[in-house]
Amino acid sequence: MNRENILLWILLAVTAGVAGAVERHVPDPYPTIQAAIDDANDGDHVVIAPGTYTGPGNRDIDFLGKAITVRSTNPADEAVVEATIIDGQDLYRGFILQNGEDANSVIAGLTITRGYAPYGAAIYCVHGSPTIERCRVLSCTATKYKGSGVYLEGTNGRIANCAFNGNGWGTVHCDSAVRLSVEDCTFESNNSAVVLERVGSAQFTRCRFISNSIALSSAYSAVTVSDCDFSFNGPSACVQSYHDTAFVAVQCTFVANRLSNPRVAIAGGAFCATHTPRVRFTQCLFAGNTGANLGGAVYAHNVGLSFQVDNCTFTGNRALIGRSLAIHSFYSCRIRSTILLEGGNELYFSTGNQVEVAYSNVEGGWSGIGNISMDPCFVEPGYWDANGTPDDTRDDIWVNGDYHLKSQAGRWDTTAGQWILDDVTSPCIDAGDPAEPLGAELPPNGGRINMGAYGGTTEASRSFFGEPLCQTILPGDVNGDCRVDMADFALMAANWTAVVSFQATEPYPFDGARGTGFVLTRRPAEGAVAHGVYFGSDFETVRDADQESQVYRGTVVIPYFDAFEFRTGSQDQMYFWRIDEVYGGATIKGSVWSFTPTR
Q1: pTM for the complete prediction?
Q2: Integer angstrom CA distances of residue 539 from 336, 523, 554, 597
Q3: What fold characterizes domain 507-597?
Q4: How far does Cα 202 stand from its chain's mean position?
Q5: Percentage, residues of the chain above pLDDT 90
């Protein structure tokens, strides 16, 4: 087939696809949204004109299992979205998806307001995997406290570019799901923004949580938040992680969150975790958060495997004990390349097996390799405004700052969008863990990661070597002096010591543990693209199994696996599991671990 015929074939295929999709317009010729859906076929678009829609056919709207898009005339136009309103009148639900709808079942560009139902007052979805995008969900109420906005059960849902404002408890509630993806969404002034129960993988990317009573609460789940902003949430702990939830936060900000209701969360202004296997914060900022008694920013109790903080900044947080972090009953805790500037009383640890604080700047000092206690030279430190009542701290207002590190070689100015030269250089530059990779730090970077939240990022302040920065970038010129010599080699060689494991490590539940749940986590091997899961009740069967075995549970791309559905026997049954790491065409067989659950 020649090139012209191939192009013609593609054009005909695309034209046929477009021709097969029908736009069904509401209110003309279809008087109601439900009438248009009833008449629609897979691939059709139900297009709703601006206006307010109420009454039969415009509430409790059922997708009927169809792969269709229900949308406004222009979901990308905020004015159109605001003017296209599904109004439940504080009596009825908005949408129902309960017949196996998948990602091709789309709700887009609509405002759903005053929904009212026991569960899922705006959108109720059971055993489906819809796409919800560019919607506004306002002032909805779930009488059973699950899903005042969106209720998802047994789904793989995706929510993107949506705004949730002024809703009741559990604005987005996800239960017993394999995967949930939430991207570029704003949650503001809700009772509780997100509640997760038994979610295999919940991922939040570029989301904003502002002035909610609770921003995010999770149990029996695996949660990752990246590039998210948590600000002014309270009176309960901003993020709550309970009961076998593995939690990871990367490049997130936690600012001015306040715990003043200890009946809901016992401590931790920004983050509170209890009975959780693993917590990790990387390149996060905690500023101006308030805890009740323990943990101004972060509190954790009974962390089963590891609590890890890498390249974070803590400043201006308040609590009686542990202004930055307070941790009870943990297996291991590691803090590295982190700045903790709280005026003293930054860290509190009670019963625990291992504590390591290294290559960090802790005000008042802390024993450990590479630790310092020096002014980090923030561009503009944040501070507490007494709000006219210096004797009453309860009404103080946090004024946030700029926590980039000053540098005579240049630091990034977010407002100006350019590099600025300072008259001093922070001692936290090139002072982080020398074993950690440089990440995205731009040259000259000294061959060593900076401390603090911007270390390892493109906004890391530049290294200064006592003379003006060379403006010519040479390959291999690590220290930026316009020469490639032994000084550059020495900086590179100092980091040429990493030992890479090709097997999964650090299992949780840890090997031989008793009294655990079924959510299995571990540290994936670096570079692995997928992970083969084996799970059963016989050691030799799991040890010798291949992908034809009954104990093979599939290959996953996330570092978490919920084995609850594969349980057998009584609560005292011991289980065995193995993770094989997949590298392109090669598979590395993993060790066999065991645990005995209680549920």
Answers
A1: 0.81
A2: 37, 21, 18, 16
A3: Immunoglobulin-like (2.60.40)
A4: 8
A5: 54
